[in-house]
Each structure stands twice: as structure tokens, then as C-alpha cells.
Amino acid sequence: MSLRFHNTLTRSVEPFVPLDAAGRTVKVYTCGPTVYNHAHIGNFRAYVFEDLLQRHLEYRGFGVHRVMNLTDVDDKTIRGAREKGVPLADFTAPFKAGFFEDLRALRIKPADQFPCATDPEHIARMVAMIEKLVADGHAYQNDDSSVYFRIGSFANYGQLAHLNLEELRPSGRISSDEYEKESVGDFALWKAHDADDGDVAWDSPWGRGRPGWHIECSAMATALLGDRLDIHCGGVDNIFPHHEAEIAQTECCTGQTFVNLWMHCAHLMVEGRKMAKSFGNFYTLRDLLDKGWTGREVRYVLLAAHYRLPLNFTFEGLAGARSALQRLDEWQQRLSELAATAKKSESHPLIAEDQFAAALDDDLNISAALGALFDLVRDSNRAMDHGEVSPEQARGLLDYWEQINSVLRLEPEAAAIPAEITALLEERTAARTAKDWAKSDTLRDTLLKHGWMVKDTKDGTKLTRAGG
Ligand SMILES: [Zn+2]
């Protein structure tokens, strides 16, 4: 059966049809973090879901071109920088670096590009898009000098969120101390500079100011992926107004359908409640690692619930992940021991059908996919008990596990060496072969900075996690 996904736009599960049927490269945009603090596990639920989507598309033979933005200028980042008394870029830099560390810990495949909203070429593109919207009557500069999108000018406004435009109109007279927009739903494309912004401002035809959050994503998505995307993802809380606004601005600029398939993942709760600092149930990934849980265990919990169902994150669930992973590790260990004498790989009747991938084809039905995997673990363990698995078949089962694991990425912690680390290690090996000891030492120090220790032994080079 073919791939099919739930489209927020139509509220139905549809067959997946890529824009570029021949090239088979799927263009995916995923809204990234606002770097004013460390991302919390609710944010990471969305990023793990997007990782599963990308890896399954790749499993099915598609190439994926994925872009994830970093929002490094908005109300929250500016407020944070002001409170700390540092320039905006200095304030956001450690959170950007921390985000990439967290992605590694959770084994999330990095996007092909991570544009930042403050990159000069993206600011220029935002200004150009707003100029076009103003020229075409879709936007206007208000008395407060900010520029707003005129939602009444876009007939499909409200379509993604399934909102009635009438509901967005004020029922009575709205008066505001500062200004009046034409419609209460009109959103800011360009925010005029005010004292709270400090030195965070760019020149524009409407005076100094800064972009609104929504136009940031429209500009970066179209700059890097083109006017039309296959898939745009985010959390359900992004649907309105953020994604609704992205559609309106972008389509009014390009005259084309912006996105074919909108996919959104549901909320994450912690211990049955909305996650909030005031409830004492607010966790970043770092908080969980500090408590002794591993990135792989957290990944398992975030991965194992269907993305469209609310996920109740609990410590019991983490403990459950730990024992599920132990079962997988023991199974692979047993298969590896049996396969040690195998000369080749042979299929086993238990894997005649790829039920794992078939389940994911159905709107990423991870519950059914993991169900199929754990049935295989149980049945093949039983078959090994009865001597019904040859070494060659054990090798075949391991090969199948490798395939599945290219999507799940649940291998034991020690084996998870990030690609960039492997690349650095290979570069160092090459330097040693060339007897370039200075370069070899520099690369050793670079690896150490990334948290990896290199030891040269008589059996070759060994790589271990520094400090553990
Ligand atoms: Zn976005």
C-alpha cells in the first residue's frame, strides 16, 4: 500500500504525492525553536516526530531536503537579551549551540539547512516580500508605523485552522490606546522600533524596525526550498495564527499554493497535566539527562506515541522505555552471538513481510510498527529457543533490524557516534597515516571539545565518550 498522511488542511488522510514525482526529492519545512532558552520536551516531541517522518520517507526511497529555522529575533529573545544586558546575538548563541547538542542526544537527523531569522539575506527577503504585499494591497502601514497584513484581502484566510473569518472580526468598536488596526485579526509583518527593542533594528522602507515572527518563516522557507513545498510541519499550537499567516503572506506573494501537505503533532502533557513551570513539571532535555535518563530513552518515549495523539510524558513511561530498550538490546546480542559463524545472510520466514514499514506508511502508525517489531522479537526469541534459527537467518534478522533502525535509531548508546564525529575521526586517521602529527593532535582536541576521547592503542584507535 502507498504512503498516506493526515493533512491538517483537509482534515483527512491522503495518499502522499510528491511535487517532484520524477526526482523523488521531498521538500520539507519544519518550524524550529525560538532560541531564548533551552527547548523543552514538548518542543522535542515535534522534532522527533519530524525526524520519524524524514527517516521513513528516506526508508521508502525519497530524498528529503529539509529546512528548520531558528527564530533568533522576536519579543522573547529581545526581552531576554535586555534582561541580561547583552547584545541579542550573544544572548541567543549558547541556546543555538545547546539546541544542536540536544538534537544529537536525541539522534535527530540535522536538517540540511538551519537558517537564522537575523541572517542579512533573510532580513532582506522579508523586507522584499512585505514591499510586494504592500504594493499589491495585501498589507498597509498603520498609524503606529508598523506594517500589517490585511487578512480581509486573502479569501482563504482561516482555511488551515478551519476558522470563520467573521469570528475574527470585532463585534463592537475596538478602541486601543495606541492604535487601531483595520481588523483585529490583522497581524504584524514589520514591527516599528520601540524603546524596548534597544539596538535590535533594521532599516526598511517603513523606518527602522524588525520583522514579525510569521514572515520570518515564509521568507526562509521560500528562499531555501522555493515557492512550493511538499510538507510543512509543526506542533498543533503553530496552526493558528503562525501557519495560517504563513499561507496568506506567501500565497499573496507567489500566487501559488504554498504547501501541499500540512502535518501537525499533538500536545505533550507531563504526568497528566499541561507542562508549566508553575506546576513543577516543566522539563528540558537537560533536566532529564541530569536525572540519569539517556537521550535514547527520551527519544523512545517521544517516538512511541502516534504523533496526532496527545502524549502523556511520565517517569513510569521512561522506565518502560528503559526496559523495552533492554529487550531490544538483549535480542540483538543473542542474534549477534548466533550469527557469529554465518557465512552469509538469509531471510527468515518471520520477516517475509515488512510489517514495520507498512505500518508507518499508514500516517506514521508507530504503535503498530513497534507492535510488529516486538512481535518479531518475541517470535524469533522463541524460534531460537527451539533451534529454529540458523546462523545465516540470525544474520538476516540482524540485517532487517539495521533497516528498521535506520528509522528508529534506538541502537545502544555506545554505538551512536554522530556522523560529524566519525568524519573528524576519519580525518584524524588520514592525518596520522600521512604522519601529520600536528593536525592529528588538533583534531584530537577538537573531538574532545565535542565530548569524545580518542585513544591510540596497538589494536587501533578507540573512541569513547569523554568523562564516561
Ligand atoms: Zn514557523
Number of strands: 15
Q: What class do helices, strands and sheet pairing give?
A: alpha/beta
Q: How many separate helices?
A: 15
Instruction: Give the low-pLDDT segments.
Output: 170-178
Tell me the strand percentage band. 5-15%
Tell me which ligands are bound.
zinc ion
Indicate the mean pLDDT.
92
Through-space gap between termini: 45 Å
Tell me the series of helices and strands, N- to C-terminal. EEEHEHHHEEHEEHEHEEEHHEHHHHHHEE
Outline: globular
Rounded to the nearest angstrom, the radius of gyration is 25 Å
Instruction: Name the assembly state.
Output: single chain
Walk me through the structure:
This protein is an alpha/beta fold. It contains 15 helices and 15 strands. The strands form 5 sheets. Strands 4-3-9-10 form a 4-stranded parallel β-sheet, sandwiched between helices. A 4-stranded antiparallel β-sheet has the order 5-6-7-8. It has a 3-stranded mixed β-sheet with strand order 12-11-13. A hairpin with a 2-residue loop joins strand 11 (268-270) and strand 12 (273-274). Helix 11 packs antiparallel against helix 12 and helix 14 packs antiparallel against helix 15 (437-449). The longest helix is centred in the last third of the chain and has 25 residues, at 315-339. The radius of gyration is 25 Å and the shape is globular.
